[in-house]
Amino acid sequence: MDQISQIRTMIQPVLEQNACSLYDLRWVQDGKMRVLQVSIMHADGSMDIDTCALVSEGISALLDESDFISHEYFLEVCSPGAERELRTPQEIAAAVGEYVFVKLKDPKAGMDSVKGTMTAYEEDGIVIEYMAKAVRKKIKIDPENIALIRLSVKI
């Protein structure tokens, strides 16, 4: 088991105790400092600073006690952000009704990307409702044609 997998297993009780789940866990290089970045969220996709602080304290205590990481590092506990990537079919399905950005592998209807509200998630694709020159339109996108899909902030 690699180090990230071991850390993931080690911190799971802290996440459960604070009613949140792990979105991402990775090492990031920030100048000369290695940063253990722990991205967390509640079941509804939200996150707050108080929960981040509690989880940070719990994880920090666990890692310090175990002395598992031999080198110097900085622990960063954060939310995955308002424009987080949707990485699994479950995350995509849960985003129905949300405003999303989709980057296409192959352009469709003259577009290489689309921003709009995901109105449906089906096995054969997602449906995005978007505005084009003040006209409301819909496009169905095959899952194989999605290069990237993420939540987007509507401005």
TrEMBL record:
Quick one: signal sequence residues? none
**Occurrences of domain Ribosome maturation factor RimP N-terminal (ranges):** 10-83
Q: Origin, by domain of life?
A: Bacteria
Using the UniProt record, give the first listed, main subcellular location.
cytoplasm
GO BP terms, alphabetized: ribosomal small subunit assembly; translation
SUPFAM superfamilies on file: YhbC-like, C-terminal domain (SSF74942), YhbC-like, N-terminal domain (SSF75420)
List, alphabetically, the Gene3D superfamilies matched.
Answer: Ribosome maturation factor RimP, C-terminal domain, RimP-like superfamily, N-terminal
Q: What keywords are annotated for this sequence in UniProt?
A: Cytoplasm, Ribosome biogenesis
- Give start and end of each Ribosome maturation factor RimP C-terminal domain: 86-154
InterPro entries in alphabetical order: Ribosome_maturation_RimP (IPR003728), RimP_C (IPR028998), RimP_C_sf (IPR036847), RimP_N (IPR028989), RimP_N_sf (IPR035956)
Subcellular localization is given as: Cytoplasm
A GO CC term assigned to this protein in UniProt: cytosol
Q: Does the keyword RNA-binding apply?
A: no
Q: Does the keyword rRNA processing apply?
A: no
| Protein family membership | Belongs to the RimP family.
Function (record text): Required for maturation of 30S ribosomal subunits.
What name does UniProt use for this protein? Ribosome maturation factor RimP
Gene name in the database record: rimP
